[in-house]
Write a structure and sequence with these properties.
ten-stranded mixed beta sheet; 10 helices; elongated
Length: about 350
């Protein structure tokens, strides 16, 4: 019975190939969306870990250093550095701006104390050492030695960093804190947060202390609705895949009505008939999942932010694909069960 099912797929190989390609595209999209969700969650963690901080101090009432615009005196870092448990404290400024002209791109701007916490680790070139220098995200396409306008000031690119984007893939630019203060605060010595090496025993008056995990959670909060949308679309794609496989299996069952009749006339039961249909659906699902893995790689380049497909996503894809195939095989079950053995002898 199973051999007959495989031979039937071979006979209808053109339809099988088209169905595999269509289903594989749907499965590839589920992989990419899973990778997109994983990449977006990872952005917040990478941005936070990049500072090498143990604690974050923000103005009281501020939810986090990257989601609010409250400011304080940059000199507060010197007071924090004197607290018990603190080895080093540095101010920094988070700011949104545009980079380049005449086609500017939105960027996250991190202003940090040169030589202090928060400094970038460029893959090419070196970190800024003075005003007017910048390390840029590789996503901007700028090269070491080039210059560009940002916030009305011209910066020379001294380094290029990789995987430092956040806020849904927005590239990040690192510059000395004095430059950001000039752009955002008309040169006033202000900061949006203080980062520390070592954890203070208590937050100073007028400040709130956050851990790395709290900062990550705060950065992910604005993404919640977007991530829920991704999960919802993923569920719809699984339903679409089941529909494609189910329709192919059902059409096959319609065309094989006389085959089922012959098999039933020769003593085949309903279970072997269903096993044959299930095998066809499972082969179609498994083949589609394998092709999807191949398709997902080149399609990743089309996303505007990091797509990080975890190994678990491939395992889940195969398991869910097989489950979808099994459920889709139910579409042809009724047709196989109701096949009249009289059809095998030319009856009505």
């Amino acid at each position: 019975m199973l051999l007959i099912a495989l031979r039937d797929l071979q006979w209808r190989r053109r339809r099988f190939i088209i169905a595999v390609l269509a289903t594989a595209l749907v499965f590839a999209l589920t992989l990419l969306l899973s990778g997109a969700g994983n990449g977006l969650r990872g952005e917040a963690r990478r941005a936070t870990n990049g500072f090498g901080a143990d604690a974050w101090l923000v103005p009281k009432g501020t939810s986090g250093p990257f989601t609010a615009s409250s400011v304080m005196a940059a000199s507060a870092a010197d007071s924090v550095a004197k607290l018990d448990g603190v080895d080093r404290a540095d101010p920094f400024v988070y700011f949104r701006s545009t980079f380049g002209a005449p086609h500017p791109k939105d960027v996250n701007v991190i202003g940090y104390r040169v030589g202090g916490l928060g400094g970038p680790t460029p893959g090419d070139g070196h970190a800024p050492t003075r005003s007017g220098e910048a390390v840029v995200d590789a996503g901007l396409g700028a090269k070491v030695g080039e210059s560009a306008l940002m916030g009305g000031r011209r910066f020379r690119v001294t380094g290029v960093a990789h995987k430092v984007s956040f806020n849904f893939g927005v590239p990040t630019v690192f510059v000395p804190i004095e430059d950001v203060q000039a752009m955002a605060f008309a040169g006033r010595p202000l900061a949006t947060a203080v980062v520390t090496k070592g954890t203070p025993s208590a937050a100073p008056k007028g400040m709130t202390m956050l851990t790395n995990d709290q900062v990550v959670s705060d950065m992910r909060r604005p993404m919640a609705s977007g991530l829920q949308t991704i999960d919802f679309i993923n569920a719809l794609l699984w339903i679409i895949a089941a529909g494609i496989i189910g329709s192919i299996v059902y059409l096959s069952a319609l065309e094989r009505a006389r085959d089922f009749a012959v098999l039933k006339a020769t003593g085949a039961g309903n279970v072997p008939l269903f096993a044959g249909l299930a095998l066809q659906a499972l082969v179609l699902s498994a083949a589609s999942a394998l092709v999807a893995v191949v398709l997902a790689r080149p399609l990743k380049a089309g996303f505007p932010f990091t797509v990080d497909i975890p190994t678990s996503a491939y395992v889940v894809l195969l398991l869910v694909a097989l489950l979808v195939g099994f459920l889709a095989s139910l579409a042809g079950l009724r047709r196989a069960v109701r096949a009249d053995p009289a059809l095998a002898f030319g009856g009505a």
